[in-house]
Amino acid sequence: MQKQQELYRGKAKTVFTTNDADKLILEFRNDTSAFDGEIIEQLDRKGEINNKFNHFIMQKIEAEGIETQLIERLSDTESLVKKLDMIPVECVVRNFAAGSMCKRLGIEEGKALSPSTFEFFLKNDALHDPMVNDFHILVFGWATQAQIDEMKSITLKINQILKQLFDQAGMLLVDFKLEFGVFEGRLVLGDEFSPDGCRLWDKETRKKMDKDRFRQGLGSVVETYIEVAQRLGVKL
Ligand code: ADP
Ligand code: UDP
Q1: Residue nearest to atom 9 of ligand 1 (CA)
Q2: Ligand 1 binding pocket includes 190 (Cβ within 6 Å)
């Protein structure tokens, strides 16, 4: 597989074309951003940890019969993926209240949510990723009703799989964000699943083990990501 030109440089990953028009290379960088890119810092080894973490989680999801972008991990920081036509919305599921839900609704952090909630956000940093609903997605043509329904049902199924996986490793899966795209007409999970895009708390102490360590200046960001990976059995 030959890496060709840079297609897109996002906040945390760079996307490269390859000699196969259906495949891309995702390069996970050490850049760590918060508040829609207002703060960016380099954290040593973060790209490698997230690439390996994402590979591990996507394999678990595939094993449960859900199609993902994943083809293979190419190096410490690169993965070969299916080139998806990305749907510009973020799918967020929450098992406990945190982050923007607390700010928006005045809910106390840590409140258990039953049933788990599902929210869509528009991917648009300039607008600070506003929350949108099914009607916005349909009327502006970002996805079809069938894709909306499928994004919800797959994201909730992934929640069931991952909640259990993290629970067995002594962690609470508080919330997470997924992105989907279309490949040969099928809805496929894209982007990444790593501690950058979810909230994880230690089950006993509720220690924050995710990107909130960076957002809130709690320190030991990469060291904690490594602890999460080790608890799950991700080979680093
Ligand atoms: P951002 O764009 O939010 O700054 P990243 O730095 O993670 O995020 O950049 C990765 C970009 O690649 C995102 O825009 C994401 O939607 C896109 N992407 C992720 N996976 C795929 C894929 N399999 N096919 C095409 N694009 C993808
Ligand atoms: N999230 C993300 N990218 C975004 C927005 C949110 O990965 O652009 C993740 C975030 O890490 C958390 C979940 O989605 O795990 C819910 O985020 P929330 O809406 O609470 O926003 P935040 O306050 O984290 O910006």
Answers
A1: 10
A2: yes
